[in-house]
Design a protein that fits this description.
By secondary structure, the chain is an alpha+beta fold. The protein has a domain of 126 residues: 3-Layer(aba) Sandwich (Aminopeptidase), CATH 3.40.630. 29% of the residues lie in helices and 32% in strands. The protein has 5 helices and 8 strands, in the order E-E-H-H-E-E-E-H-E-H-E-E-H. An 8-stranded mixed beta sheet has the order 1-2-3-4-5-6-8-7, with helices on both faces. Strand 7 and strand 8 form a beta hairpin. The chain starts with a strand and ends with a helix. 31% of the residues are buried. Bound molecules: coenzyme A.
């Protein structure tokens, strides 16, 4: 994927020398758990995930321009549609994680809006799906501020955490994006 730029961030492909920055936020308690994975205990844990990110389409590192480091990730994944009725449409699933020190500055909203703009305007996307655990109010606000519509809820089994969560599920269609993005 190509590099995208916002006021404060670059969204760009992962590189091997992002390893330490990635580990710095992935080892912190309360970060990965909200997205379904446990804190990384060792640099080796992070390296394994980083190699997957680099080898798989759709993973972007979030680079903080002022602080000159990677502070999070965005993933655009190919999976089955969350609800029926999207046959023949181009759809993806969105996931995101930000380093704890950077929460509450509007950074993920800025990143997600930029990514959605690129996918809807340049990459022919029809629908973006996403979801969050029902207790994750921060993620809920990001999703709401980006205009997603709640379409249901249900169990999500995290094999890594050996726990089942109740997940709220959302979609944003191209038409919805067209309306909401006028206000960004
Ligand atoms: C979810 C996450 C990406 C949010 O990133 P962020 O850059 O802090 O998000 P923003 O600053 O754009 O928006 C956060 C919103 O949550 C609100 N918020 C913060 N703490 C909150 C709380 N305890 N309860 C309710 N809302 C809260 C903020 O006020 C803000 O909303 P507002 O703009 O209406 O005031 C970040 O917290 C994170 O990475 N969490 C761990 C991983 C995760 O949850 N990933 C998503 C999995 S679905």
């Amino acid at each position: 994927m190509h590099t995208l730029e916002t006021e404060r961030l670059l969204l760009r492909p992962w590189q091997m020398d992002d390893l330490e920055d990635f580990h710095d936020y992935a080892r912190v308690e309360g970060v990965g758990e909200a997205a379904g994975w446990p804190p990384h205990n060792t640099l080796k844990d992070t390296e394994q995930v980083l190699k997957v990110f680099m080898a798989t389409e759709g993973h972007l590192a979030i680079w903080h321009k002022a602080d000159q480091k990677v502070i999070g990730s965005l993933g655009v994944h190919v999976r089955d549609a969350t609800e029926p009725g999207h046959e023949g449409k181009k759809f993806r699933h969105l996931g995101f994680v930000l380093a704890k020190d950077y929460w509450g500055q509007g950074l993920m909203t800025e990143a997600v809006r930029c990514l959605l703009t690129d996918w809807f305007e340049n990459q022919g996307l029809d629908v973006m799906f996403c979801g969050h655990f029902d207790t994750n109010m921060r993620s809920q606000r990001v999703v709401e501020k980006c205009g997603f519509e709640k379409i249901g809820e249900g169990p999500y089994e995290s094999k890594l955490l050996r726990r089942t969560f109740n997940q709220y599920r959302y979609k944003l269609t191209k038409a919805q994006y067209g309306r909401v993005s006028q206000t960004w």
